[in-house]
Specification:
9 helices; 12% strand; alpha/beta; 49% helix; 5-stranded parallel sheet; single chain
């Protein structure tokens, strides 16, 4: 590793346990976890309201929502010389990803971090999936939904994620060629899936 930081990028289906696994990996490898935290960083650097980033997280068409918000969007900083665009918002978040990736071990959850950091050699990108029934059960429990509503929630959310990822990367969200490892958490369960991924990362970086 030549003392380079370890960068772990986690893509995940909704209800797959990907967020929980990311937290466990961050603890195992002494990494800083970046999920919603990236929105805070991007908001601070852009001068936009953090709430604006949150409401449009991982959605390709988010600029259209600007004019439906009643929020203090602008700070003292000009928005890339007032050249407002969807790509500018994405650029702020990408800049935040690149900056913190230089500072130490990181686990990034979603937000095309695998693509943003594609030129770095010290990265590993993992996509976590799960059987639909398991995913529905988790979403029902997490959001207090019935099964039909949970299924709609998953489909709608994943359409947004796929559209966002595919648009900015030119790759295909969730397809194996876009990642170093794809794994179904339903087969081993959350804890064993995390251990398997951790073993893969250690071998990938020659840590064993």
């Amino acid at each position: 590793m030549n003392n380079q930081p370890i960068i772990i990028n986690i893509g995940r289906q909704i209800g797959s346990g990907g967020g929980q696994i990311a937290k466990m990996l961050a603890k195992d490898f002494d990494c800083q976890l970046y999920d919603k935290e990236l929105l805070n960083l991007a908001a601070k650097e852009s001068g936009f309201s953090e709430k604006f980033f949150e409401q449009n997280d991982e959605q390709k068409g988010f600029v259209k929502s600007l004019f439906h918000l009643h929020l203090p969007l602008f700070g003292e900083n000009n928005f890339y010389k007032n050249n407002f665009s969807q790509e500018s918002l994405y650029q702020f978040q990408s800049d935040a990803i690149r900056r913190v990736a230089k500072e130490g071990n990181c686990v990034f959850v979603g937000r095309t971090a695998d693509y943003v950091l594609r030129d770095l050699k010290n990265t590993v990108s993992v996509f976590i999936t799960a059987n639909m029934d398991h995913r529905i059960q988790r979403v029902c429990k997490r959001h207090s939904l019935d099964r039909a509503s949970a299924r709609k929630y998953i489909r709608r959310g994943e359409d947004d994620r796929a559209s966002y990822y595919n648009y900015y990367t030119g790759k295909r969200w969730g397809h194996s060629e876009s990642y170093d490892l794809c794994i179904n958490s339903s087969l081993l369960g959350i804890e064993e899936t995390e251990r398997f991924i951790a073993m893969f990362i250690r071998k990938r970086f020659g840590m064993e």
